[in-house]
Design brief:
This protein is of the alpha/beta class. Helices cover 37% and strands 16% of the residues. The protein has twelve helices and 14 strands. The protein is globular and about 65 Å long. The model has no long low-confidence stretch (mean pLDDT 95). The structure holds phosphoenolpyruvate and manganese (II) ion.
Length: 347
């Protein structure tokens, strides 16, 4: 990883570096952070001579050689101070970042979604979620509808809140990017779909779209999870959040095996914010508060929670696992207390 002294390399400087790494069969990838560009060396970048030549250039601050399977996601990488900014908020700064909204947008009841969006804004969420296209285990269940995107775009316009939707293929990705969707969600079923991850990272590079990457539910280890996120960053988009969402087989009584406890492991290894999804983890509205409090106690930066103004009228997961906006408000207040406790001075 190459860090220039200035915010960015000039074209001539970039060309000079490209010709050096080219001699060693490597190429350069530019990664645009909010404040600074850094440059990853792609290929077999173990050549000490190549490193020394680049480090000796007058406009280079540092060349990092991190021995890690995820050298861009690594805590010690040049992105270690990178902040994921969504709307006007840096994720994990000052308070928990909360994404809330229905599992699935019902295209036949747009008003329920719009009312939920307003109620959630009032409850204090930072971003709205809502499934336009749904990955359903049962092929005969509702699969989503292109029309639903207009409903969530309307909700964004009315509330001013950034929006999060899951994308599963190129066509959905294109629609989401054309609509400037603020958060592209990669679901647990695609969490290790490397060609999709590369495509999402490439096409969203340099845009305002961040990515919420769920953990693979078949117990992706912390390293496998972080390495999947590396695909997104290495393809050009460093605005990535890691989302533990429970693994299978489930803990008897829950929908999955709750995994908020991996938050500190992730945070020790990578700079990326951790946004836990308690809804799919426990799978029942009545346990969502406990799992959320635990996630924040474990050091998570935020939460992604299913919420609906009238859960029983929702579709998808909403009737069983959505909490109401009123419960969301209480949950945010309680989580903020735990958050503050984390930052109390220790003697
Ligand atoms: C969802 O967020 O509604 C969803 C389908 O999530 P997951 O991919 O974690 O199952
Ligand atoms: Mn869901």
């Amino acid at each position: 990883m190459i860090i220039p002294k200035a915010d960015k390399l000039s074209n001539n400087q970039l060309q000079e570096i490209e010709s050096i790494v080219g001699e060693f069969d490597c190429t350069i990838l530019e990664i645009q952070g909010h404040n600074q560009c850094v440059y990853a060396i792609l290929g077999d970048e173990t050549h000490a001579v190549m490193f020394k030549r680049i480090a000796g250039l007058p406009y280079i601050r540092k060349v990092d050689a991190i021995e890690s399977p995820y050298k861009l996601m690594d805590r010690r990488s040049a992105l270690s101070n990178h902040q994921v900014r969504i709307g006007h908020v840096n994720v994990g700064e000052g308070r928990p970042f909360i994404i809330g909204g229905p599992c699935t947008i019902d295209p036949n009841s747009p008003q329920l979604f719009i009312e939920t969006a307003h109620a959630l804004k009032e409850a204090g969420v930072d971003a709205l979620r809502g499934g336009v296209w749904k990955p359903r285990t049962n092929p005969y269940s509702y699969q989503g509808d292109n029309k639903a995107i207009d409903i969530i775009l309307k909700a964004r316009e009315e509330t001013g809140l950034p929006i999060d939707i899951e994308v599963m293929d190129s066509a959905q990705l294109k629609i989401a990017l054309d609509s400037n969707v603020d958060i592209l969600q990669v679901g647990t079923r695609n969490a290790l779909n490397y060609s999709l991850l590369k495509e999402i990272g490439e096409t969203s590079a340099g845009t305002n779209s961040s990515i919420l990457l769920k953990r693979g539910r078949h117990v992706a280890s912390p390293d496998e999870f972080i390495a999947a996120a590396e695909y997104l960053v290495a393809a050009g988009n460093p605005n990535v959040m890691l989302c533990p969402r429970g693994t299978t087989p489930p803990l008897e009584g829950y929908r999955n095996h709750p995994d908020e406890s991996i938050s500190p492991l992730l945070k020790n290894r990578t700079w990326a914010p951790v946004v836990v999804d308690p809804s799919h983890s426990v799978g029942h509205a009545e346990y969502v508060l406990a799992s959320s409090l635990a996630a924040i106690a474990y050091g998570a930066d935020g939460l992604c929670i299913e919420s609906h103004i009238e859960p029983s009228k929702g579709i998808g997961d909403d009737p069983k696992q959505a909490i109401t906006p009123r419960e969301m408000k209480e949950l945010i207040l309680s989580c903020t207390q735990i958050w503050k406790y984390r930052y109390l001075p220790k003697d």
